[in-house]
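Quick one: structure tokens for this chain, please?
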Amino acid sequence: MDSESLATVIKARRSIRKWKNQAVPEEVVKKAVELATWAPNGGNYQGWRFVAVTNRTVIGQMADA
């Protein structure tokens, strides 16, 4: 990746603090998990475990924890 492309990615990054009240399509979640497996990690260890939580009550409990 050249420095210009990297700069574009970094400048486009955002922190979301207010979410829409709609479900994320399952295919989008699956693609996000697939892309997450490409993230670098210590020692090249890929002991991935992903859990997609869709129950809003559980999400709220997790946020409160």
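The two ends are 38 Å apart (CA to CA).
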